[in-house]
Amino acid sequence: MTESKSAADHDKAPSGEDGAKPGADISFPYDRMTVEQFRRRFPRARWSDARQAWFVPGRTASRRIGRWLAEIESEADAYADAKGRDAFVFDPIDSPYLELGKAGFRIRTPYSKTVVDELREVPFSRWDGDLRIWHVPFRSYEELRRRWPEIEAAARRNEPEERRRRAEERKGTEQEMRSKLRSAERKRHRYPLQSDDLPPIGRPVVTAYGIVVFSEISGELVDPSVVADFYPGVTEDHVWGYWRVPTLEELIRTWPAKMLPVQNAAWWLPTIEELRPTRRTARSREARKQGKTP
User: Fold this and answer.
1) Residue 194 and residue 156 in one domain
2) What is the per-residue pLDDT for 245?
3) pLDDT grade, residue 126 (50/70/90)?
4) 226 within some domain
5) Does the residue 168 lie in any domain?
6) Could you tell me if 143 and 224 lie in one domain?
7) Residue 154 and residue 207 in one domain
8) CA 124 – CA 143 distance, rounded (Å)
């Protein structure tokens, strides 16, 4: 970014003077305090009209500029964190799912895809797989506050007692029958896939059923009239893919994706947040199997 204020009141470097000198350029939006800080740190820096940037002489200029920028960013983060903490004190979130930590908020809820999706949208949030909690820095409080009603409602819906209560209410109803049909469909270990967007065979991918490994893509076309209730949006262009549960070794070997999936994707490569709980489940499953082995 170039400095937005005219450099007429700054010391100017003659045209071409810095061309052969060792050094580095830096430009930033004009702010009087920032310029004063910069001039104190780099008293030999000169403004170049030709490059519309500050020239800092010296063979280590680039490294020194990098350290200064890191300090400025750190100060900005500290100010943002202080501002976020003050906002929390003024308008706190009172919830059993949120705890106040030294560097921000710690959030622990029953598993819910809605909770995961909402927290992923909060800037700088991260999942701690060892403690099984989400960390959110104070600077992200405003966004967390905005999303909290959805997060808390989803967490309460997924409390064990609430899930058992709903299960009791569903007994003997059409909803329970549909649930049993969905369970039976899942046991078929098949999944509709767009014929022009097929997942890799033998590699863990994420679907509506979680992380699975497709072992076969058949040429059998899906009949939407039969399975539309289980797979909304399925069309006659879909084909059946047959999947299995991944092994722990496959999950450990899987390199996590850096990019989040596109909206409404039928399958995608797993992120580290998706791999960690699946690895734990697979590890527990294999430990149980080994315990049963005579």
Assistant:
1) no
2) 94
3) confident
4) yes
5) no
6) no
7) no
8) 11
Tokens of 277: 């709980």
Q: What is the mean pLDDT of residues 79-87?
A: 87
C-alpha 206/C-alpha 120 separation (Å) is 17
Question: Taking residues 205-232, what's their average pLDDT?
Answer: 90
> Is residue 198 domain-shared with residue 283, that is, in the same domain?
yes
Rg (C-alpha) for the chain, rounded Å, is 28
d(CA 33, CA 226): 68
Going by DSSP bridges, is the β-strand pair 210-221/204-207 parallel, antiparallel, or unpaired?
antiparallel
Whose structure tokens read 């539309």? 228
* Nearest one of 38, 123, 169, 90 to 134, comparing CA atoms: 123
Is residue 89 one of the residues assigned to a domain?
no
- Secondary structure, 3-state, the chain: CCCCCCHHHCCECCCCCCCCCCEEEECCCCCHHHHHHHHHHCCCCEEECCCCEEEEECCCHHHHHHHHHHHHHHHHHHHHHHHHHHHHHHCCCCCCCEEECCCEEEECCCCCHHHHHHHHCCCCCEEECCCCEEEEEHHHHHHHHHHHHHHHHHHHHCCHHHHHHHHHHHCCCHHHHHHHHHHHHHCCCEEEEECCCCCCCCCEEEECCEEEEEEEEEEEECCHHHHCCCCCCCCCCEEEEEEECCCHHHHHHCCCCCCCCCCCCCCECCCHHHHHHHHHHHHHHHHHHHHHCC
**Which residue matches tokens 């003024």?**
90
137 DSSP β-pair partners: 104
Confidence of residue 267 (pLDDT cuts 50, 70, 90): very high
Task: Name the domain boundary from 28, 57, 73.
Answer: 73
Residue 263 tokens read as 């909206």
Domain count, the chain: 3
